[in-house]
Amino acid sequence: MQTPDYTAARLLDxxxxxxxxxxxxxxxGGSLRMVTDGVxxxxxxxxxxxxxxxxxxxxxxxxxxxxxxxxxxxIDDLLHGRLTLARRTRVQLGNPDAxxxxxxxxxxxxxxxxxxxxxxxxxxxxxxxxxxxxxTATTFFSSSHGARLHLDLHTxxxxxxxxxxxxxxxxxERPTARARLGWLGQAGIEAVLLHSAPAATFSxxxxxxxxxxxxxxxxGKARPFGHNDLSRFxxxxxxxxxxxxxxxxGKADFDPALPLFRARYDLVKRSEAFRLNLADSVENFTPLAxxxxxxxxxxxxxxxxxxxxxxxxxxxxxxxGLRAGIVVEPVTLD
Length: 334
Ligand SMILES: [Zn+2]
Description:
The structure is a single chain. By secondary structure, the protein is of the alpha/beta class. It has helices at 8-16, 66-79, 96-101, 125-142, 178-186, 202-210, 234-245, and strands spanning 24-25, 31-36, 39-43, 52-58, 89-93, 147-156, 165-168, 191-194, 213-221, 260-268, 275-276, 286-287, 293-297, 300-303, 310-312, 323-330. The chain contains 7 helices and 16 strands. The strands form 2 sheets. It has a 13-stranded mixed sheet with strand order 1-2-3-5-4-6-9-7-8-10-16-15-12, sandwiched between helices. A hairpin with a 2-residue loop joins strand 13 and strand 14 (300-303).
C-alpha cells in the first residue's frame, strides 16, 4: 500500500476506464480497497470504533457529476491525511458507463430499475448496474453492527424552489427517523418529500429490503465534470466530512421549520393526448393555485384543490403508462 502519489482524480480515471485500483493506505490511518468495479471500501484504522456505517452512492445518473466531485475531494483528503476516517464507508459509482459519456443513462433510467425491477429489463445495460449496486449494498450492510445510513446523491436539470431537497422513501410501518431529517437540515437540505408509495429507486431498495435509513438527495444543478461550482455544495460537503470524520453521527435535533411534503397523487400519462398545463421550464415545488387545471388526458382532468399543492418532477414526455409528475402537499410529523 505504498502509493503516496495516488490521487482521487486518478482513482476516478481508473474506475471510469474499468481499470483496477490498488489497495491504498489513508495517510492518517485506515485503508481504501476496491470491492468490485466502481465500488470502494474506506475502512478506519480502528474498524470496531465505527458505530455508524455509511453507504454513499454517486453518479446513478451519468450527467450528475457534482456529487462525484464532492465525494472524490473527500477521498483525496482522506488519502493525504487532511481528514481522518472514523466510519466504515462504502462509496459506489452508480453508472460508470453513463458517467464516461456524460449522459443521464445509456439504455434505461437506472433509478427506475431497483428492487428487482432490473430482472424485467435484462437487455438494458443499466440492469447490470442495478444488480451490482443492490448486491454491494446488501453485502456492506449485512456485516454492519451499528446504525446504517445510505445517501444517494443526485443533481437535477430542472430548477427547484427548494434548491436542495431530500426524498425519504416509503417506510411502510417504520417511523420517520426525525434525527436524520434534523441532520439533513443541517446539511443544507431545504425540504423533504416523505414518499407514500413503493418505488423502483435505490433508496427505496436499501430502506425497504435492508432496513437502512436511506435518502435520495437532490443537491442542485446538473453540469458536466469540471463545470460545477462546488461552493454551492458546501453544506453537504461539510456534513459528509463531519459524518465520516466522526464529528457527528448523522443525527441532529429535528427543526420543525424544515418544510415537509407528501405525495398526494401521481399524474399518470394515459395516452399521447396527455397535456401538462405548465411551462417546460416550471421549477420543482411550484405552487398550484386552487382551481388550476394541472393536466388533461382526453376526458380526464387533474385540478388543483388548494391546500398548498405543488408540482414535483413534471415530465410530460414520458411514455403512456408512466408518471408524468407528482402533486405534493405540505405535511407535518405527528
Ligand atoms: Zn439523478
